[in-house]
User: Fold these one by one.
Assistant:
Number 1:
Amino acid sequence: MTVTETQAPPAATTPAPALEPPRPSTGLAAVLGTGEHRTIGRLWIFTSFAYLLVAGVAGALVGVEKVDTDGLGDVLGADVFGETLSLHGIAGTFLFLLPLFIGLGIHVVPAQVGAATVAFPRATAAAYWTYLLGGAVLIASFVADGGPFGADSRFVELFVASFIAVLLALVLGTICVATTAVALRTTGMGLHRTPLFAWSSLVTAALVVLQLPVLAGLMLLVYVDHRYGPTFLGGSGGVLDRIAWAWSQPSVYLFAIPVLGIIGDIVPVSARTRLSKHRIAQGAIGAFGALAFGAWAMPGFGADGAAPLLHVGDVPFYAFSILILLPALAFAGLLGDTVRRGSLRVTSPLLWGVASLLMLLTGILNGILVAIEPLDLIQTTAQTAQIHYVLVASLLGLFAGLAHWAPRLLGTPVQEVASKALAALGLVGTILLCLPDVITGFLEQAWRLQGVSGDDVDAVEVLNVVSIVGGLLLVLVAVAFVGLVLKAAVGRDHDGDDPWEGNTLEWAPAGATPAITSEAPVYDARHGAGPSTTEAK
Amino acid sequence: MITTGSKFFYGVAALLAFAAVVYGYASGGGGVGPISFGYKGGVGEHLGYGILLAGAVSALFAGFCVTAFRDADPEPTAALLGADTVPAATTTGSSFWPVVGAFGVVLTVVGVVLNNVFFVAGLIALGAVAIEWTMQAWADRATGDPAVNREIRNRIMFPIEVPLAGILAIAIVIVGYSRVFLAVSKLGAVWIALAIAATIFVIGTILSLRPRIRTDLVAGVLAAAAVVTIGLGIFGAVAGEREFHDLSEEHAEEGGAEAGASDESTDEGASEESN
Amino acid sequence: MATATATTPTPERLPLRLEDVPPAPPRRPRVLLVGTALASAASIALFGGLLSAYFALRAEVIGQGEQWLPDGASIPLSPGNMTMVTLVMSLITAQWAVHAGKQQDRGHAYFALGLTVLLGIAHVVQLGFLFTQWELPLNGEPTMQAVLLFTIMGLHVAMAAAALIFFTLMLLRSLGGQFTGRDVEGLSAAALYWYVTVGIFVVLWYGILIVK
């Protein structure tokens, strides 16, 4: 018998056999091609840790240079000092803080608003890869003597161009997070009922959208001027002045906006109750965000590339600096009231959050001092202290978020005892880092390389050493906490647990999404639907 | 209707517009300049005034949009579809175009500063990503069956992708190895060519002897070969070509002066080898 | 001798029968529109910052009693005005495309989209021509004015190109059967970004090309 095998078209009446479903990628291919928001979020977070290391090392080098005020510039040299200082600032803010927020947002916000994924997952992935590669090129350009104060003009230009790419990636990433918070909310969740972190993500994104493009445009101008023009913006020596406003007052508060949302989600959970006056808390975060718009306070364009400070002493500068205390205090008051009404249990996320809020309020007070013109604290170490207070407060707050959402992010919580100890040390480290700088600011120590004259030299040098110790302590705390996070990530053992008894939708048991009638649906489901604080729209 | 989201954006716009006016007057603005955008009178310091105003306009625009979209709230959004609830957002399948796009962006950035070849390569990569990304986004929603969607996408794109990928692979091999052959001596080029041929032969033999072979193994081998080829090509390009005598000049000299230079090697490397 | 025929289906190469396949689930509306609105707000902020720098530097030069444009440089009005008119026309065609899409009128939607892309390309070409006319070299001995003008106007060319690519990609998806009838979100989003692109150019046209 001969069997002839032919390939016949299927009969028109029989249904076509199902095609083989796409096989999921594995290994490196799965990471490179991922469109899964939790994976992308973790990529942002872990990459930001790597860049934190760069910022920390650069900060330590800058600190060492300040020990001996007589020989400023002896260790690194003036130009390398400028480059290192720039790297410290840029890596700390644009390669660490904002990306860490974006990573947290990409992972947590969809779950908070009841969405299965982030908006535009492929754009989110593209933003991540651009951030990763652009950040690597940016650091490489520093190493090749580019960057602000760099001597190799080609690599100065490469720094500027790669910085623009990083900024675009950050804007794209925050737009994806904000779009998720706005447009992917589940049924019943009006914007007035979004958890505070999701709401603060929207506010942060709004400010990022308003400010970072201004910085990107300015960098484009710097690039064209440096490459083709008469260098009227000051060449490589003028680049830092065109960037530093982004982490100076009032723009520096942008980095702290998500922290308010994080703390606002942690405190009610720790107090085992719902937040007092959710809508007022949203308003406070919104007002804080609006007052964090600070691109207008950038330096002007003087002759020979100078960057004169035009805004100091003007009414808006005072107003923005002082008024921002009001929403921060109102928010802290709401949290205090929540704690008073609830039954507090001290968790490590709460400790990180409290440390963060305290440092943020201190930073705002420090900022008010800096704004008062007769005190003459602008461009002294008192201003450095204010920047550090706010940025380190942001770091502590984001660590609070990592500790809080670790069971969802990593599959298991971070070690509570160690995390609590690190939070306490983080608070001590921040005070040691910043308070001496406030005092040396009053002793007229400039924030960049300028010596101190008069009888105060010894006192300033001692205070500088204390500040460096605080900085090193913070670096150790950060490294240890990252170690805890990585350890938790590696040893995920009880996926899906909710150790905190959370209030918001990301803590809902799988497959049991509660009806949403307030801002705390899981709390409602656990305790029976209580009176909603946000019924009226 | 002023929604929650638009309240925030309008609030930001109002604050920044008010701050712009105050800043304008505080920094030397006169008349009604700060409230008429400088139409009558000065606006004061232009940079801060302009940025505050731009921020206000930008926030106002976002506020208008959010109002028009009703905050993208679930209920009015569902009503748009004539449904009771909004459709759930669906997860996206794996795609390499985001990472290729990011690579294209960074290649463009590096190229615009350092090398035009990289710049053009980056732009080409970005163009390809734009088309492929759109095609994939379209195919993802062609039907409700991911397998069928993939088949539809492949049927449209493979006739374009396969020849282009072939051309790209050939170009990489030609450009990459030609840089290497031109950088090393004449005899060295022969040895390298033999080594490459032998490697291809051995790998091909090993692969053909295995009845079943994982596609990702083949892909890995090809990817590694591509990386090696590109790496060698860059190395060869950086090293530069070996020195060549200009044959036309030599022939001219031969013709003009009838010098007996014909037995001299035209290649320094070769003459070294012959010595 | 008996002959038997066995059929072997090869799943990957079967002819597709789309009538057996479930249609794609409905897409959640307004996601792309919200994202585009935020991206548009970012673009406004980008050009707002650059224009502020432009006006600040211009005011400084004029404040010193000098002319803003250096000797020999001039910005002719006609090319700028022509490109302005071109863009205003494209606003109508862009809205036409969205409207036709909503009406399921595919022919008009394709035609209007094509016209919009054509007018956009004309804008880019006209600006390129303008660059050759204003006697402000960016090579040789460039001036601050040249840096500012080329950066700002050049960036707008890039923005217009990005908007055109957005439009073209949406056109391709429309040709593939998506974005018609109730679901015209892609077209609407592309149109929104185009309106912002044109709006920004109106400000550049008046602030830079007309006021000088």
Number 2:
Amino acid sequence: MSTSTTTVAAKGVAGRPRAAAPGRRAGRPAGRTHKAFSPWLFLAPGLLITLAFNLYPFLATVWKSFTDARTLTTGEFVGFDNFTALVHDDQFWVALRNSALYVVLVVPCLVLLPLLLALLVQRHIPGIAFFRSAYYTPVVASVVVVALMWVWMLDDRGFINGVLHMVGVDPVPFLSNQWLLLLSSMALTVWKGLGYYMIIYLAALANVPRELHEAAEVDGAGPIRRFVSITMPSVRSTMVLVGALSSVSAFKVFTEVFMIAGPTGGPGGDDTTLVMLIQRTGTGLQGRTGYASAMSIVLFLLTLVLMLLVLRADRKDKD
Amino acid sequence: MAAVTHHPAGPRRTRAPRRLKALRYAALVVVLLIMIGPFLWQLSTSLKGTTEDIYTSPPRLLPEHPTFANYRGVADIIPVWDFILNSVKVAVSNVLTNVIGAAMAGYALSRLRFKGRGVAGIVFVLALLVPMEATMLAQFATMRSLELNNTLVAVVLPGCIGAMNVLLMRNAFDNIPYEIEEAAIVDGANVWQRFTRIALPAVKGTLAVVAIFSFMGAWDDFLWPLIVLSDSDHFTLTVGLNFLHGTFSNNQRVVAAGTIIAVAPLIVMFACLQRFFFRGVGEGAVKG
Amino acid sequence: MSIHRSVAIRTAVGLGTALSLTLLTACGGGGSGKGSATDGKVEGEIKFQTWNLRANFKDYFEGVIKDFEKANPGTTVKWVDQPADNYADKLSADATAGTLPDVVNLSPDLAYPLAKAGTLLNLDKDKVAAKFKPEYLDGAWQGFDMPGLDGSYAFPWYLNTGPLFYNKSMFKDAGLDPDKAPKTFDELFADAAQLAQKGKATLAQPPTVEDFGRYGVQIMSEDGTKFTFNDAKGVDFLTKYQAMFKEGGLHKQALTLTAETAGQKFLQQEVAMNPGSAHDLDTFKKNAPSLYNSLGITDVPTNTGKQNMYLQGLSVNSQSKNAATALAFAHFVTDQKNQEDFGHKVAVFPSTKGSLDKEYWTKSDGTEEGKIRVASAKMLPTAVNYTPVLFSDEMKTILRNEIAKCLQGKESPKQALDSAANQMTKLIQQK
């Protein structure tokens, strides 16, 4: 991979040739080898975009959350009114509950199932490359696309109910019951994420010394005991990583629920998630931008807490 | 049984019961059906003609008289090719801006010494902490004041140089041995020459990863285009499919055809570039 | 890839303006300069925006524009049409960016937030526009009266009561007279019960605010400060709907279906009735020929004897650079001749005084369409817009959600309506 083209044309030299002292670690030149402004030219596009479309909107959201701004009006400063209103807003609590439920139910599945899957496809047996790729297919497809496929599978007269009907089970109202709608969305999230996390685990498993397993097998340890006492500890840090990644994205879930439970969030809006509520409240001709910004701040703080919690669990484990 | 991960060529291999192997394949096939079954069912539905009942129980797996009529039907209801073109424009721009912008910024952070480098690095790390979902309303307001709302430019801009990609590139550049660049400095190469001729070729793999994930991210994105686009002329494919799903004259066979049209290019791309997809997962996750 | 270049350029340009612009808006100095005078000379270019009308009426509008330009030399009208979906988003984006067209097609609920933000011309307060007021039906003109904003904000344009489609063969199968559609809500509930006995659903959506209005429920207090649909009559209405839902009179997925997906259920003959618009006829003809053959069209049931009036209007942008031209054009499109012409093109009704007395709308030509036209025209003079002007999307969602909770049995009808009315009243008091 390292195509080291060391011969560089010496025309148009900008910086004076100078033998730089070897840095303390590779990649850290000691002396100046460029004009003072060059680094900023390199950084300018990335820095500007990040400041303008990431950090500035964040500050603007913080400011807006203290105003009663609407889509068409800038609004006035109202102090903590939006936040106190949130506390008394039933819809907000329902949305918060749904997003939290999403984390609680989806994350354990996404931490464990892909690990089992990785173990299943780990061995280099004939045809395994095909299975690995096939398992990754849902990752490649758009959420909207796979959600539409699922909606069709889960229809009252769709594939799953068709099969259930064969064995004499009444149609299951996947697409009209409040809880089944939410569970179906979660199942979709898990299904779509399996392949992605499977690959992460495969990379981690490749580093587990085989001798460990062999020694355990000689000791007469069964598969389950070997899984618990050897595999799990050796990929523990990867599990934490997967937990962190999947919990943050589960908390921000939007598309799956939007597509399966519908834009208004299921019957009575009881399947609305936090991001759905932000989208619904803050957009449109009469959108309450200020109020929705307050929800956005809550979303930001909670994702931060979630990340810290997972990382802290990791540290505690290590101690 | 899944935990059997011993050495394939080990001495005890012959002792491994054949039954176990059969069991493993059985498990592989069951999972296979779960993972790609929905795609196949969708494909089958999309090929069924209007005269064929698609609501039968037991479900009929193969179309009786396969037809492509539904694929033509998609284009009658939504301008699906325009949507695809829009998505391609967005995805390709996103790849170019991310590859170039992230490589440049990552190079500066990794290989150049200057005052303020630490601060610049922190800006990108901070950006990682702010979820897009929490700032999208403010982003929308910014787009409106720039009069960019309802344009594809607005779809691309916020994610056009991802902080994550910048940090990925920085890590990649960190791994190039300094000696190589040193020789170029002695030869009198300037920064730009060192960047394009030495550093970039050395991180081709990571560039490919950034490119693929930028493409997928843009192709997949739904929430932001949904908010920022209002004319159906500018819809990307995901927003367009949602629209197709919601139209009055909706027909399950046509929706199925639409989803197949949307997913097929991605599957082909994946089949060709598998290596980078898998590599990308590893790098993105481990270093993120 | 040319887009990439333009992205790069616009990024560079954009970032500069981004900072200055956001500073501007942050300071609240939007620079909302007043438009030109409405009594000035009628000349120059204006932009005219319609809502989902190009597909079917391209020739009509091009004709009207040509006539106007001929009558007013030196004027140019640029016509744009927006698709049905996301119209509100498009408007809000244009309004904040200051790019709202000079003449805009609006319904009262869309006009309200725009008028409140000061982007529309108050016709009652404009000496040129106010003169035209007597040409229009009083009810239509008042339809654009914005509560708390002291005036009317659009020239009334076309009216509609909105037909109710029903499936005659489903009626017949259930032992109902296919030619006798329910006229009142009691008849509707009775028919639904009979259809439900055969395992068929009647409607695909729970009741909307218009349904409450047609049932005779007072939606808001007289002074427009408070929602009052949670009175005894409202509770009675919802109780009956709850019973209807329980016995299967509503589609099983009724609580999650949108207006569009509800239409699909009617297309698939899973429900017997569905409200719609004249445009839907084409859809039926093309996509569901068997349904089209047994299609019945009737008025939506009402207990008040009055229909709900769906009203469209043309507003003038208050910041228009050629306000005189914009005003003249908005009036021109909505004058008696042009409105009557338009009413001949499609099943909508003119809002100009005297138009509905013309033979076309009073004497049936014997066709099915003619019969419906005359019947609907008869209802129009008394029709009311039951949807309060300040009924926002958010309120729509609140009402829908509370009704869903009630139909599922999680809340009693009284609880659901109390809660909805409270939340909505809070929203209008917030301002």
